[in-house]
């Protein structure tokens, strides 16, 4: 599809969603806005059962690309020693298939409604040792000890935290010296582009329907400001992704 026409189509669809949200969908929108429980249950089902199937191939391609980076950074690892991994925003466990061998997992998510889907996925990957699952926000992982993980994984999660800076500081705190932070996130387009305008236009509703997900985050800039070493950030625009989340970063950084 021609870029200009694609922008027009996505803008028209966004306008339609705004209209529907304040007419037929207003009761549903109101429930999601004011009920965290309903919002959690809705989004976990929507993300796993509705979003993942049609976008599965492109999402898996991006996830695999991220984990290939991690593999390159773990070449000198002694495989008989368990790798201590913390995944923030574990969701339905879509990343488990890419985990290195002999991994001990601590799973963190702020949405307890994901746990049923996560457990179903975990049963398919018995080689991963789940040490514990913690329901908490990434900005306040006080149950997690300092300097305790070899790897922290965060995919499509920093868009939904209350404070990116606080979450990144917590990630840095729990990593061992020399530990790796692996990330895959969608970000704001160049602020001068029409696509960034569309993201800003869509964000107020998107944030409600997608349980706090914000389309206008500059997560790449925040990662660089946190004080990690050897920060690698590559930008991608996979054509099969929806336009509003097509601007993505994948990378790895070292504590």
UniProtKB/TrEMBL annotation:
Annotated membrane-spanning segments are 12-32
Please give the Gene Ontology molecular function terms for this protein.
Answer: S-adenosylmethionine-dependent methyltransferase activity
Pfam families in alphabetical order: Methyltransf_11
Q: Could you tell me which residue ranges the Methyltransferase type domain spans?
A: 86-182
- Keywords, alphabetical: Membrane, Transmembrane, Transmembrane helix
Q: Which InterPro entries match?
A: Methyltransf_11, SAM-dependent_MTases_sf, Thiol_S-MT
Q: What is this protein called?
A: Methyltransferase type 11 domain-containing protein
Q: Which organism is it from?
A: Larinioides sclopetarius
